[in-house]
């Protein structure tokens, strides 16, 4: 173990802002991205539900490709 | 392709067969990513020694190098799938390329962000117009350009083809980033790991970095699989099998 106290660990030898700013940004991005993908999937599944059971071919007339993610 | 062979990779070239496979594989890759991240961060932040020159500030390496590697690597994989989609007219390959772009862009951005936070205390500047930094910024813009172009074209197959051209042409930038620290006089330090030389870092530092790189790799696969499932549902929704698959 490199550290003698939690405070010392958090201080990162004076580089706290830079080290935690980097790790934090990566953590936030890599937690949010899968959530965004997951939510998009749920929304897609929900949008298909009313179509289920409808005659094939009659479904989703005029469907237009949308951006992969982002608000609709 | 052939129904007589017992197992063929071409079998999975169809969205209808790939979709359930992606669904099954995705949680495993995500679980691996979480486990490897915990191990990598534990070694990197609790066990690895202090750097003689950079003190504790060097610990940014454990996210900066994996993010930068993934940004470059994902671009190559994206260009590969885009080229396969273009050359052999395989829809799923083009979908895979589109699924990788946002994750690659994210890692390029994280590479620039963590690099700025590392540059400030070590070089005294958040940003310099140095060969490596500039070529990484161009990589980020290539990802954005690929996504913007695809989003601007309504017909998905035409969007695939236009995007593929950008992806393939942009590949020249990847070796430029990689070798920039050798070809030009730059502020950025040289390669951390090289095939020909033994690594210049302490073993624990190196292990932590490699495990983190593997974690980022697994993460990228998991997210790309998740996103390609969304793209498949979006683009194949008129087909009956999609409604059965998502039911």
Short key terms for the protein model shown above:
heterodimer, A: 2 helices, rod-shaped, B: 247 residues, mainly alpha, 8 helices
Order of helices and strands of chain B: HHHHHHHH
Shape verdict of chain A: rod-shaped
Gyration radius of chain A (Cα, Å) is 23 Å
Rg of chain B, nearest Å: 20 Å
Helix content of chain B: over 70%
**Percentage of residues in helical conformation of chain A:** 40-55%
Most extensive interface, chain pair and sizes: A-B, 40 and 55 residues
Total domain modules of chain B: 1
- Summing up helix and strand content along with how strands pair, one would put the structural category of chain A as mainly alpha
Question: How many strand units of chain B?
Answer: 0
Strand residue percentage of chain A: under 5%
Please give the count of helices of chain A. 2
Q: How many beta-strand elements of chain A?
A: 0
Structural description of this entry:
The complex is a heterodimer of chains A (72) and B (247). Chain A is mainly α. Chain A has a domain at 22-48. Chain A is built from two helices and no strands. Chain A has helices spanning 6-11, 16-48. Chain B has one domain (27-246). Chain B has eight helices and no strands. In chain B, helix 2 (61-88) runs parallel beside helix 7 (203-236) and helix 3 crosses helix 5. The longest helix of chain B is centred in the C-terminal third of the chain and has 34 residues, at 203-236. Chain B is globular and about 60 Å long. At the A-B interface, helix 2 of A face helix 1, helix 2, helix 3, helix 7 and helix 8 of B.
SSE order and pairing:
The complex is a heterodimer of chains A (72) and B (247).
Chain A: H1 6-11, H2 16-48
Chain B: H1 15-47, H2 61-88, H3 91-123, H4 131-152, H5 156-170, H6 173-183, H7 203-236, H8 240-246
Helix pairs in contact in B: 1-7, 2-3, 2-4, 2-5, 2-7, 3-4, 3-5, 3-7, 4-5, 4-6
